[in-house]
Amino acid sequence: MTTTKAPATAMPNALTSGKLPKYSPLWLLAGAFALSIAIFAVVDAAGGEAFNWAGMAVLAVVLFCVLIWLISRLVEGGRKATDRLVTALVSSAFAIALVPLISVTYTVIVKGVARFDLSFFTESMRNVVGAGGGALHAIVGTLLITGMATLISVPIGLLTAIYLVEYGRGRLARGVTFFVDVMTGIPSIVAGLFAFALFALLFDDPGIRFGFGGAVALSVLMIPVVVRSSEEMLKLVPNELREAALALGVPKYLTVLKVVLPTSIAGIITGVMISIARVIGETAPLLIIAGFTASMNYNLFAERMMTLPVFVYNQYASQGTDAQAYLDRAWTGALTLILIVALLNIIARLVAKFLAPKGLR
């Protein structure tokens, strides 16, 4: 008995099958960068100028977009070529957006490590006129003022969002929505002027400066962000869950407390953290109402209180005889502020993960 052997099938060729190889975009990108580097190396050498890295990157991106569109059009057709071109443009835009973020982060880390030591976190600037000292008073002031602002803003903002989503109808709801939108665009210095004018009139003291006033100023900026973010999260809760609870005879307020809020708690916490990150770096309102000091102050309701943004501004703007010491403290203060925001976001993600319903974790 003889068996006939099946003819061997040739390996498919991506180019002949109307499709580019898998890693062709990466090879084209590398080729575009190599060509761009060669062009700028020749041009800059001929002109006797330093190598233009920014221009090289821009030319490489343009070359890549042209090459990926042209080659894809020849091999895959016009529709796929348009898709690859748009993908390349979107990816390039994303990379361009990352450039300033990476640059700022790198600069702050490199220049901030000079004073990132124990004394910076355990000492204040009291009686320090040159090198040394620290930002303990500013860190404590930032945590106290921002914490108080959060305690003021979160209940007001969350309750407002619940009203707009669950109860609000008619002119009052539209009016609240309108004023929330207006508050979203308020300049930060206006919030500081509002808090200063409010407490100056209440206490009849035109020179009043204290931490609680700074918390009120920050809460004016936080409330609309909390309202908007919480409102969107509450709207994402399926109406079927509300209807099921109401059909079982559960009162409206218990439906909100036991069904709606637990379902949306992860998004709400994320929105609260976004609002904290929005205000923790504000300088103008705190300069007006909280002032600045070189000493420790744990009392929000008495005397001036320093915060990290004001500390960074003051160290940079009011340099003494040893200017480098002031600059080092300013950069380390900025690095500390970034680390605080990053830590708060990590905590928010962990809290949201553990508080979210089981099926949404």
From TrEMBL:
<keyword id="KW-1133">Transmembrane helix</keyword>
<dbReference type="InterPro" id="IPR051408">
    <property type="entry name" value="Phosphate_transprt_permease"/>
</dbReference>
<feature type="transmembrane region" description="Helical">
    <location>
        <begin position="330"/>
        <end position="352"/>
    </location>
</feature>
<dbReference type="GO" id="GO:0005315">
    <property type="term" value="F:phosphate transmembrane transporter activity"/>
</dbReference>
<feature type="transmembrane region" description="Helical">
    <location>
        <begin position="87"/>
        <end position="114"/>
    </location>
</feature>
<dbReference type="InterPro" id="IPR005672">
    <property type="entry name" value="Phosphate_PstA"/>
</dbReference>
<keyword id="KW-0592">Phosphate transport</keyword>
<dbReference type="InterPro" id="IPR000515">
    <property type="entry name" value="MetI-like"/>
</dbReference>
<dbReference type="GO" id="GO:0035435">
    <property type="term" value="P:phosphate ion transmembrane transport"/>
</dbReference>
<comment type="function">
    <text>Part of the binding-protein-dependent transport system for phosphate; probably responsible for the translocation of the substrate across the membrane.</text>
</comment>
<feature type="transmembrane region" description="Helical">
    <location>
        <begin position="26"/>
        <end position="47"/>
    </location>
</feature>
<feature type="transmembrane region" description="Helical">
    <location>
        <begin position="53"/>
        <end position="75"/>
    </location>
</feature>
<dbReference type="InterPro" id="IPR035906">
    <property type="entry name" value="MetI-like_sf"/>
</dbReference>
<feature type="transmembrane region" description="Helical">
    <location>
        <begin position="176"/>
        <end position="202"/>
    </location>
</feature>
<feature type="transmembrane region" description="Helical">
    <location>
        <begin position="208"/>
        <end position="227"/>
    </location>
</feature>
<feature type="transmembrane region" description="Helical">
    <location>
        <begin position="134"/>
        <end position="164"/>
    </location>
</feature>
<dbReference type="GO" id="GO:0005886">
    <property type="term" value="C:plasma membrane"/>
</dbReference>
<dbReference type="Pfam" id="PF00528">
    <property type="entry name" value="BPD_transp_1"/>
</dbReference>
<feature type="domain" description="ABC transmembrane type-1">
    <location>
        <begin position="139"/>
        <end position="348"/>
    </location>
</feature>
<keyword id="KW-0813">Transport</keyword>
<comment type="similarity">
    <text>Belongs to the binding-protein-dependent transport system permease family. CysTW subfamily.</text>
</comment>
<keyword id="KW-0472">Membrane</keyword>
<feature type="transmembrane region" description="Helical">
    <location>
        <begin position="259"/>
        <end position="280"/>
    </location>
</feature>
<keyword id="KW-0812">Transmembrane</keyword>
<protein>
    <recommendedName>
        <fullName>Phosphate transport system permease protein PstA</fullName>
    </recommendedName>
</protein>
<keyword id="KW-1003">Cell membrane</keyword>
